[in-house]
């Protein structure tokens, strides 16, 4: 018996650059005898409630609110109204334009134009803009159907970066709302050598000409020298053309763009189908200029817009490294790029001849000021919702997210900005793409939101404070130094809130000449419940006292900021009108500032009236509204609110006291209670020891608006009026709840207010983070942590802590971290992260530190995590909350006694979000590879692994596997000389760069994450967004052209990271340089693949230099075969033919070709393409597991949107995850893509009893595109007959004698088990079929119409309501554009998993360890790759040996056996034989299979075969080859 160890896992082995030696793992099974901490410590959310549960919005301010939440469009770039409809058009980067209703409730899209098959979408490229002809939709006009589109188009071949910039006209046929893709007329087709600076923004000006913006062709520093040329190609300018070709005011094109050397077979650039306006500024009858130019000198005029009222055109010009700018468009102007950038010098010298008139921007902002980096121009606001914005130009910055409003000063010619709000975090491909507009003229800020996710649409709003806390003004706070007794002589002219020192009351005081006549006096003599004494009140007199300052102005009190919106409320106050004070006129004793609308019952001027007013009625006419009759002198209450449901204004008037009972000299103790549930406002008066009701009004709906509350005066038409003549006040309280009389001020029961923290503490000492601020000893429940590879912070020393909410035991989901081995962790609401910074300030004595700041990141209940910064006082006694960013120069004592200053940047809250952005998961440091290291814990003095310690505390959920700890990645400090240069550099850029440089982040083309393998990162010879000829991310052996090293070593405008870096990390710079110099000067390679395919497809293979030796078998290909390889030098095209539908992967391993120096190539990144049936119209696997989108995995990307569903509706499914529908009308909505012929299939699981009916509309709708009445529609529903809960399928025919045709299944589907359902339909014959679990159960003849009456398809529920909605689970929803055969349906019903066998195996054996999952990796170092472990039944994390027993019989035959996977195997096996170890032949045709024996576990079997050698064979070697299938 012989055994052979000769195995091969695939057709190729992995190159040395990607061997497991490059991974940093902890290879001990248990690192320490015990964890570093003894146990958890209880701590409440938000540091025991010391921080707000949502980010502070105390005064009410601008913010953005999401709208169109049910619209699912990936990478939206532009939004505009569709003329003549109530629909909006959304341009998607992918090359598709969508239509949807301009309604927040819109839940379905239609396709206006689909050019995905011809749109080049790499990097910034794609479809960019759309504009309608001014005569669009006008009957009889020849232009009535014209729409103009800009996009990038690319023929096959090329280097993966070059393409054509196109401006084309399309036609919308009469009677339709979609453009005809076959109607394209190309106006400009221009070869473009780069992927960036395309702009494409367009508008028709008031002159009827089309204005088009285009950037400088891309590259750094105007790489292609387009910026100042007007005679070569149409770049770097705004063009003006006459698409109507009216020769009375324009003339023919005189000059064509210059032709450049292009890939073989690519067409020429050209312009056509328009004329040149006769008054364009750069005309040349000799055809020396490209006369289309209207203005020049732009780098990337990304967005521009015309304002008809001012006749100004604003341009948002995105800068390179120095400034962002806004300009006003002028005819013949030159905006200076590339010799000007904003208001400063640009990267190049001015040209010898400057065309046009040089024009400076009207506004600019420096990148160095941070964090702005990419201005996106909007438009001048002329909407109605926000009058304060009228006439202002709106912009947003793609990097910072800041939304600004600009005013233009005609005198100075400059614009000034106001920052309104911030967009949700994220930049470039996860930032804001544009400022769209709805039909009402309101701005819609579009957040691209990253690839493979739905874009988000945001509108501006002004909201009240996030929460409303009760306040109680007792007036017991006359300051010791206030000898005058006037409130204006108190500190800050204020009297405090006695509940929580919250919102204060203040008086007017100009500190010189005038102040309010409001002074402290004796109290009302009553002690409120729970209060020991009552000493003081205030007396408010109007007019002033006549004695000069203080007290010589009208008396009043008003809150220092807006009080929040109220629904239920209680307002209490005590007041006494003094003698002779009620003689006449209006007097407001308490009011809420603001204006309101007119209510139906009003006989007053509604808009001028304030929302709340308790006042002496001062009108001689008998009434102010139709519900109460008032007389001059009555005490009157009016509360006015807007019904949130209807928008109607509601007025609740109450006569509190008749004028005969409302007299001077006595106290009135009132409690006013508003209660939404009863719809009432009730007034109580305390008199003779008890409260009695004195008035009540009905119709109250809540929504008492946010505003400033006043005591002693009112407001009318927005102006303070109705001051009291003379009154004393005491005990004023406003509660955010409807109190009962037993809880009022003077009742027996003391009310215990609940205070919601709305503002962060002003001092660090008030946060509760530290029990001893001097030593920074953390409080109970606040634990330290450290990171293996820290972010560089200008040499600052840092300490870190985390407070994870728990009650003493981490035994619930709200007390645990969502662990991920190689991704972002998720943290419970209320978690607080703390980081403290100190700077060494004496080079001769490094332990001397200056405390700088302590930062907090808080996980809120809603919205994004927010950051706060506390700046330490000079004496180190405490730290104060910073309201915004700050710069400080700090003196550093040098070793020789000299000094220098170092700038320190304190971040603003916006700065925090630039790095702590949503695309990076918000929380940057705490993750597996950073905390997989030792820390010495002060609490115990023990040193232990942090992951082990946190796991022992119970902090992690079940995703943490202690048995895998030794396989978790571990990043390394840049100073760790025991680690390789590669490990140190990759760890460093992960910490310093990956928050932005990752998929969906900034547009730099590399992935800085440590968990991404080097070959996938795009670092070595990686392309730049704006390269020079030789620059790349990393150029082996070349420091000057390795832009990562150059930018890291800079503190200038090109510095990286761009924020808060003022000192170069010299040690890291040296290590980065050493690594670059250690790399071989080998060629790099980039593979460019299509986004999807339906059959054979091409892969562009681009090398960094000409190479030799490339053959088709050099490529690692899974799921396809190589059909051809063409090309030479540095550019090749590989053609792949897929084996089947599914995912195809392709890569080029290291060392397969040679460059000029003889070095083998670096490995390429692996690329994948999903190959789908070309008739597959939609495939929603429902594997997202969270969120509100059901993503379509077909090339059509017709995504679904979850409506009315909760997070808990995502459940484990038949394969992956699924959705559970509760029968309440929950559903998934999507565009109805069903055509004439179709198949709809899905998995369902239910126990629901369906309605007894033969009519699907009366049953339980599972899939529906039903329409009212006889219609061309269809439905799949659950119905019941004869006790069988079955599936029914209906098709409709609007004009047929039988409106509906129905077929019914025969088997029960409500078994509680997964059941596969499929229906097919052939339009020509009307044939309908229904399959259950692959078996045909019914067929019939139905409608032959196109079933498109309803443009929206829903599954899981019925939009008509809960009564006919499905209750159960659904998974794997598919729509094919043909009727599948019975065999194909049966195959679908037998699908085994949503994952390929190898992917299933990886999920079981290497869960979350993506960096170990490559087919040719060998994590355990036993010489057997992952795929071999999979194919032959091994363990990738344990040493294995796979014996192949062999036995040679006397007749010379050989019997051998081997282990293989059972079907579906995921591998193809071959027995190979050779007479030496160099040449192998497949022996399969000469084998006789003897047996297959199942092995324990059911996934593997042992196969025994017999081989008869050829005559004369003296020695033989055997091996088993397994290849991926």
Question: How would you describe this protein?
Answer:
This protein is globular. The protein has eleven helices and 92 strands. With 1525 residues, it is mostly beta strands. The protein starts with 6 loop residues before the first strand and ends with a strand. Helix content is 5%, strand content 34%. It has seven domains: 7-11 and 1399-1524, Immunoglobulins (Immunoglobulin-like, Sandwich), CATH 2.60.40.10; 34-57 and 758-813 and 828-927, no CATH class; 72-382, TolB, C-terminal domain (Neuraminidase, 6 Propeller); 471-743, Jelly Rolls; 993-1079, no CATH class; 1080-1174, Immunoglobulin-like (Sandwich), CATH 2.60.40; 1182-1393, Jelly Rolls (Sandwich). Pfam families: Big_12, GSDH, Laminin_G_3. Residues 1-33 form the signal peptide. This is Laminin G domain-containing protein. Residues 1217-1399 form the Laminin G domain.
Summarize the structure.
This protein is mainly β.
Break the fold down into its secondary structure elements and pairings.
Elements lengths: L6 E2 L36 H5 L11 E7 L8 E6 L5 E6 L3 E6 L8 E5 L12 E6 L13 E8 L9 E9 L8 E13 L9 E3 L5 E5 L22 E5 L8 E2 L18 E2 L4 E2 L15 E4 L6 E5 L4 E6 L5 E6 L4 E2 L5 E2 L2 E2 L11 E2 L4 E4 L8 E6 L12 E5 L4 E8 L4 E9 L9 E6 L5 E5 L8 E8 L7 E3 L20 E2 L9 E2 L11 E5 L13 E6 L15 E3 L9 E9 L9 E6 L19 E5 L18 E8 L6 E9 L10 E8 L4 E8 L2 E9 L10 E3 L2 E3 L2 E3 L4 E10 L34 E3 L4 E2 L3 E4 L11 E7 L28 E9 L8 E10 L7 E7 L6 E3 L4 E8 L5 E8 L2 H7 L12 H4 L2 E3 L6 E3 H7 L28 H13 L20 H4 L25 H6 L17 H13 L6 E4 L8 E7 L12 E3 L1 E9 L2 E8 L3 E6 L19 E5 L4 E5 L8 E2 L9 E4 ...
Helix pairs in contact: 5-8
